């Protein structure tokens, strides 16, 4: 039996519009360099911070092993370079203005104890004991013997960058005389220093000692030296680095690290005999300045962009500290109302599973390129692309990613897919590629442009648009084979394009430019944006509601198809790079310093075009329905009622919606193993804000009586410990359903009573039985016919 009915429904009214409020769910805390760290114990430490706002200078403090840091105002007037805490209360910082400040209450308050009137920067500070210490830097060394109450000048007049105290009287510093790398040794608690020329032509930036004998120093062009006799002699090590190394740290005699420019990290497990490069995730292109390990596994790195990296596996992998994520995010895409991805600089990829409220850094990205764009043509298949022609693909919803061969070496700027197999990307100098095999191969297209192609948007399988410099927009109506120049009326660079359908589209660009077409690009109208800030992206949720974002934290929204654009308060001044209107109508915007903004009070419609049913396998009902458009659609409750005068509706399932989409969507649901009877069905379409609307299936579904006796094979089989047994009887009668073991002994009786003609399913729980072969036997007796059948079942525990 099959019933097919069609229900044509009207578009629901639109109630709420884009939110006027944005929640900043993520933004990099520190953007200036963090030079040196000093940890008191396994949880509490301090770091110098280069921010100088109106003469206010900060030191950073953590009480949870570097997971989060708090700014504390110091008494210094310029950026801090080094910090040294002697215990939980007493610590010192040194500044670029030649200042030394002291705290006696765990960093809460600071008082200047030395100032050389900004003549010389102080880069290193250290102490032999509670009273005797020294600071050195730009052609100047100072010393105290009374806990900083007074300081005397003298000693090294070269540039010193780092120091290590070996005993209560011995210390070694490293630096340069402006041409060569030197180490400076004191054996009288800093009263005098002896210099040794160690590295010709290479400045030495850091020094570290494991104990009184074993130490290391590193510097320019990747040089590194080791001593095993307290600095009496030094041997060169081969690090493999060619960039300046500004930090060296050893956990023990075998395991150590060097790091420096271009986010470089090298690890040794044989005391420096050889080093292996380590790639941090994501790769923020900063200089690594300092390192500290709390134990053999857990360590932290500070650097030039204010980012902290952490490791929990002995330095084999380094992950950026989420609370100080500073990588610019350029792309954002959601595959449903909860799961989305953001991508950006250095191979940065983050994932949200709660609609964009919280994000987790992904460590499974195979390249460390700067990602510029991202697209998910299906819920499981997605692409991200960026510099040097890099393109990665996932086919399992982001669980794993693999690299794809693109055939270009330049930066991929924009990406779009029309279906799971057909995609396009753009690159500089008019380069455009097309794939028809899900990104396996990419073929060149001739666009007629010689300048950078900044944006691409396909409104259908054949019709697409690209943007470029000087107001250039081109159109194809044959899937990219040919491109036609359009007259836009503007001459600025257009950064992005977005088409709702083949007719209606928008493009945004420099100087706050927004243009719109309603006739497939034949004519464009310049819209009043109200800003001169460059706009980087534009997106629409439906024909009325759209958003454009750009530099200086610019967010513009329209609720009337672009006739008017209104600026909203973003609570940030960083450049915003992209926005995505989630399937539920919520909006996520991403940008500089890891910024992610979230807005959540949109309500948009669902348009249902058909709702049909069919009966399969005699007692399974298949429901099919189709939507033309959806907005804010959380999904559909499927409700069923047995037809009667006082019928009651019961929820029998749920099918998730596609949120917001202008693409036709097909849905189905199978209601299995029904008994004989007449049934009504309806859909309860639910918005993410809780609003709902019912759609009734026109007509009833009839499950007729069986037309023969039947005992079906149990499922599952083999089973452990329970399985389902289904049977059907076409007439009323007495039914016996019993289980026997392999010897023929009756184990249990499941049914032994009169039954009306119908379909039946019973559960057999064998938890008290041992593994083996069992038999199920049905005996049905009626006035017209008797029926007996046996099936074999396997219990496997």
Radius of gyration: 35 Å
Which class do the helix and strand fractions yield?
mainly beta
Beta fraction: over 45%
**Helix content range:** under 10%
Mean pLDDT across the residues is: 90
Which regions contain 5 or more consecutive residues with pLDDT less than 50? 1-19
Helical element count? 0
Strand count, sense and barrel status of the largest sheet are: 7 strands, antiparallel
Strand element count: 71
Q: What distance lies between the first and last C-alpha atoms, to the nearest angstrom?
A: 41 Å
> What shape does the CA trace take?
globular
Explain this structure to me?
With 797 residues, this protein is mostly beta strands. The protein is 0% helix and 50% strand. Strands 58, 59, 60, 61, 62, 63 and 64 form a seven-stranded antiparallel β-sheet that branches. A five-stranded mixed β-sheet has the order 26-30-29-28-27, with no helix packed on it. The protein has a four-stranded antiparallel β-sheet with strand order 1-57-56-55, with no helix packed on it. A hairpin with a 3-residue loop joins strand 58 and strand 59 (620-642). The two termini are 41 Å apart.
């Amino acid at each position: 039996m099959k019933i097919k009915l069609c229900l044509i429904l009207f578009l629901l009214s639109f109630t709420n519009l884009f939110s006027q409020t944005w929640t900043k769910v993520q933004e990099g805390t520190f953007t200036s360099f963090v030079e040196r760290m000093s940890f008191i114990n396994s949880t509490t430490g301090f770091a110098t911070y280069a921010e100088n706002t109106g003469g206010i200078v900060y030191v950073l403090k953590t009480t949870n092993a570097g997971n989060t840091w708090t700014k504390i105002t110091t008494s210094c007037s310029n950026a801090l370079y080094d910090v040294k805490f002697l215990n939980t209360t007493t610590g010192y910082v040194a500044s670029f203005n030649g200042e030394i400040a002291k705290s006696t209450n765990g960093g809460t308050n600071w008082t200047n104890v030395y100032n050389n009137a900004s003549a010389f920067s102080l880069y290193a500070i250290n102490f032999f004991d509670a009273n005797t210490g020294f600071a050195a830097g730009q052609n100047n060394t100072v010393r105290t013997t009374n806990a900083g109450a007074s300081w005397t000048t003298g000693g090294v007049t070269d540039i010193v960058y780092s120091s290590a105290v070996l005993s209560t009287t011995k210390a070694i510093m490293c630096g340069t005389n402006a041409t060569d790398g030197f180490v400076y040794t004191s054996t009288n608690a800093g009263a005098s220093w002896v210099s040794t020329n160690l590295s010709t032509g290479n400045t030495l930036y850091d020094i570290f000692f494991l104990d009184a004998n074993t130490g290391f120093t590193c510097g320019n062009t990747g040089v590194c030296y080791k001593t095993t006799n307290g600095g009496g002699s030094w041997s060169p090590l081969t690090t493999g680095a060619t960039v300046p190394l500004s930090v060296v740290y050893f956990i023990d005699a075998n395991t150590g690290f060097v790091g420096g420019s271009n986010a470089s990290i090298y690890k040794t497990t044989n005391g420096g005999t050889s080093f292996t490069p380590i790639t941090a995730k994501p790769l923020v292109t900063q200089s690594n300045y300092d390192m500290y390990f709390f134990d053999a596994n857990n360590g932290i790195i500070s650097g030039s962009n204010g980012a902290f990296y952490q490791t929990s596996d002995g330095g084999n992998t380094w992950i950026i500290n989420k609370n100080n994520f500073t990588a610019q995010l350029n792309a954002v895409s959601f595959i449903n109302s909860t799961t989305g991805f953001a991508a950006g600089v250095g191979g940065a990829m983050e994932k949200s599973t709660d609609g964009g409220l919280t994000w987790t850094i992904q460590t499974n990205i195979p390249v460390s390129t700067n990602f510029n764009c991202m697209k998910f043509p299906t819920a499981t298949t997605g692409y991200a692309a960026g510099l040097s022609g890099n393109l990665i693909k996932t086919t399992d919803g982001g669980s794993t990613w693999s690299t794809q061969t693109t055939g270009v070496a330049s930066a991929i700027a924009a990406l779009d897919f029309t279906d799971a197999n057909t995609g396009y990307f753009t690159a500089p100098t008019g380069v455009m590629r097309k794939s028809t095999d899900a990104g396996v191969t990419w073929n060149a297209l001739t666009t007629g442009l010689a300048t950078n192609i900044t944006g691409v948007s396909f409104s259908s399988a054949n019709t697409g648009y690209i943007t470029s410099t000087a107001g250039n927009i081109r159109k194809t109506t044959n899937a990219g084979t040919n491109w036609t120049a359009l007259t836009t009326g503007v001459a600025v660079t257009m950064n992005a394009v977005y088409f709702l359908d083949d007719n209606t589209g928008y493009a945004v660009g420099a100087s706050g430019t927004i243009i719109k077409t309603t006739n497939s690009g034949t004519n464009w109208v310049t819209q009043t944006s109200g800003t001169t800030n460059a706009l980087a992206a534009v997106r629409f949720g439906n024909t009325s509601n759209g958003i454009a974002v750009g530099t200086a934290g610019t967010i513009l929204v329209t609720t009337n198809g672009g006739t008017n654009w209104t600026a909203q308060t973003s609570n940030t001044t960083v450049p915003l790079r992209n926005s995505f209107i989630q399937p539920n109508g919520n909006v996520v915007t991403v940008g500089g310093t890891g910024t992610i903004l979230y807005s959540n009070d949109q309500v948009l419609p669902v348009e249902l075009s058909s709702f049909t049913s069919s009966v399969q396998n005699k007692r399974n009902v298949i429901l099919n329905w189709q939507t033309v458009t959806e907005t804010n659609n959380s999904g559909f409750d499927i409700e069923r009622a047995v037809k009667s005068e006082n019928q009651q509706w019961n929820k029998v399932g749920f099918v998730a919606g596609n949120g917001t989409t202008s693409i036709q969507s097909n849905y189905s649901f199978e209601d299995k193993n029904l008994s004989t009877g007449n049934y009504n069905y309806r859909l309860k379409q639910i918005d993410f804000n809780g609003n709902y609307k019912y759609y009734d299936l026109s007509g009833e579904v009839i499950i007729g009586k069986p037309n023969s006796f039947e005992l079906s094979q149990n499922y599952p089989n083999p089973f452990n410990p329970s399985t389902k047994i289904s049977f059907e009887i076409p007439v009323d009668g007495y039914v016996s359903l019993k289980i026997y073991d392999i010897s023929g002994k009756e184990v249990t009786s499941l049914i032994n009573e009169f039954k009306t003609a119908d379909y039946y399913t019973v559960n057999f729980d064998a938890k008290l039985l041992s593994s083996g072969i069992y038999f199920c036997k049905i005996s049905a007796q009626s006035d017209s016919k008797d029926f007996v059948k046996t099936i074999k079942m396997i219990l496997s525990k």
